[in-house]
User: Fold these one by one.
Assistant:
Number 1:
Amino acid sequence: MFLTVIYPGILFFLSSLFLSETPRWLFRRGRMTEARAALRRGLSEQETAIAWQEMEDLARARSEAAASRTGDSLWRRKYVVPFVLACAVLALTQTTGINSILSFLVIISPPGRHDSAPRDSGRCGGEAAELRDDAGGVALVDRRGRRFLLRVGTGGVVIALLAAGLIFHRIEGRTADVRPVLEAAQAGIV
């Protein structure tokens, strides 16, 4: 059971070796040729020109702001609000319980399934799907932005949890309560 998680982890690690830096990171480091090439990999020529202009404008605004400020406190609204929002997103991600479902996927039996078939294949399938979705997110983050991915990902989690809850509720609604039978049998034995 514990060995099954190493295969997707190794695949994820090896895949991460082929990731390139984002165009904005390259731009900030002064690696303009690589930044423009990274933009061209995911965008059309016209979109590349627009994104390049935005990066130049942002760099100019940052340098002007840095020259004009003497001391910038981390307690300013422009820093505190994004930090609080990031903490809220992280906390809400944990409270959805999706990580628990993914961690205990091997132990949780699908509704209506009572056989002892190996569940490790389900774990590997879940990890493979997670790896596929993460790779898709990495490919989309520069094109669509983090906000879009956050909305789509959160919506997907909500839909998946609702669907799982409805499936479990429907299956559990069809089960019979055997408590009276067991209590009667136990009373007859004792």
Note: The radius of gyration is 25 Å.
Number 2:
Amino acid sequence: MCAEGATPVLTRLDADMPEHRHGMNYRPTLAAKGEGRYVAEGLLFHMPGRWQLTFEVEHAGRRGRLATEIVLE
């Protein structure tokens, strides 16, 4: 839990391949599982390579983005 007493909310998740300038063919769905945990379904990584995952989070009336990369072989 955060200092303000509210847990950040994951509002969106997306993935794209920067080198190929495209993303996934489908938009994943998110399900809150409590205590700040989520399950994402429908992530379709349709080709190998470097993917960038972007998470949009809302907390205390503010929105932010977090990003990380994965490489699929």
Note: DSSP finds no helices and six strands in the chain.
